[in-house]
Structure formats: C-alpha cells, structure tokens
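Sequence only, no structure available. Ideas?
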Amino acid sequence: MRAARTVLGDVPAEDLGVCDAHDHLFFRSARLPGQELDDVAAATDEVRAFRALGGRTVVQWTPYGLGRRADALAEVSRAGDIHVIAATGLHQAVHYEPEVLREVRGRLDELFVEELTDGIRGGVRAGMIKVAGGFHGLDEHARSVMAAAARAHHATGAPIGVHHELGTASLDVLDLLCGRHGVPPERVILGHLNRFPDSRVHAEAGEAGAFLALDGPSRANHATDWRLFDLLAALVEAGHADRLLLGGDTTTAAARASTGGGPGMPYLLRVMRPRIVRDLGEDVAEKIFVANPARAFAVDWRR
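Reply:
I predicted one. Tokens follow.
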C-alpha cells in the first residue's frame, strides 16, 4: 500500500485530502531572531483554521536542528484533527551553529534513515527529507547533504523536498540528485520556484518529472501572488498541472493568521484556491491540492 508517513502513523494516500504541501508549524533559526515558531497553542489554532476551510494535511518542512518540535507535532495533529507530515534532513549551513554541524557530519545517512524509520522522538517518524541549495548554485555542504539524502531515499523510498534559495538552481539540483545519485525525479519536490519566475526553467523541471512547489503567499517580502498565478497558468498550459504543489511556507510568528500578523495557512483555501478554481478550473485545483500531494508524499515504504 502506498502510504504517507504522518506523525500519527502511516495513512493511505487517498486519505491525505486537501494539502498544504509546504509549511512550518514550528521553526527556529538564528537568521530570524525573535520570530521563532514555538507556540503550541498558536500552531493548533492555525491548523484548526485551515481544517475549518476543508484542509486535511499539513507538510512541515522543518528539518533536523531547527526547532521542529517533534514532541508537540502529534499533539497538534490530534487537537487540530489534521494529518501532519514531519521532515528529517538538513538546511543550509548558515542556519546552524557550527557545533551542530560537527555533531552530525559523517552520520547523516544514519540520522535521516533513523528518523524516517525508528522515529525522531516519542515514536514520531519523519515522512520526507528536507535539503537546501544555495543562490544559483550548490556549495559543498549542499552537495554532501543531498548525497546523504539520496542514500536515505534509496534505503526507504522517502521523497526529498528542496529549498531553493530565491527559487534558483533547480536544474542543478535535479542534475545532482537524479543524474548523479539516481533518485527518480518523481521523488523530488522543488520548493520556492515562484521566487525565481522563469517559467521555461520550471517547465524543464516538470518535463524531467519533478514536482514543482510554489509557496510563500504569507510572506510579503517575496514576490508571490501577483506572479504565482501567471506561473501556474503557464505550467498548466505547458501540460504540467499534474506536477504542481502549493504551500504557505509560514516561517515567522508574524506571518501566522492565529497571531493576527499575516494570512497564514488559511489563506491557501480562503483566497488562493477559489482564485485557482476561477482562473484555471476545478480540475486543476483538485490536482494541486489533493491528487498531486497524494502522489508526491505517498511512498511504498521500504522500511
């Protein structure tokens, strides 16, 4: 059975329902001082608001060492009556203290596989691997993390989600993960593509078979909605509607609907889904929010 690995256990792909394919319930980085996502009540309120609009699954891309709160994810999932998929993996080096990277260097394969199979904490298992590229390129840190992620994928079948700095270097990532390390492109999810609005590059990635994640509508400091719909339309016209994913990528407390500072997760279903239905059709909306996430995050788990 193809199943998505949630924090409460494996669920059939068809049970994922309407999905926020890239977001954060908990997140902490030295690059965002004072904006930590660490409030269990606020996270619960956020998912409840998303659930009230028909949402069923939230995929948290927060990887190892960035305050992903594995101890609280199951609590939020139960309280919000929503599926939560957690991540293992590693972000860019700049997000970590040097001692954290020294601690895990040399055992990334073991760490990723352990968190996907045995669990992160309290039996909560990760259901995807999060990695990150750099601005228009891949440094040695990114290459070593992606190599470990590829080996963990081959051991488990887990999908790999990629942070692209300002949306760049997506084809470099595919060359590395798929070309060099043999990861099937349909197991790769390319994130933040709307931040580099080159529809030709996106179409090439779609033709390769990768999933294309457009995200960040809660972040006013990034070009999102006003370009996002043009990008969606271009990719649909190019025949890639079955590759598209959408997420909120809420990374600061100020961007949450539950704190009053931003549209947050509910915005995806309150504003964006109706616009997609109106401009691109119900069939496209169903693919973006339901059918495509079911294929992207469900796995024939090997362990």
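Strands lie at 3-6, 9-12, 18-23, 55-60, 83-89, 126-132, 160-163, 188-190, 211-215, 244-247.
Hope that gets you unstuck.
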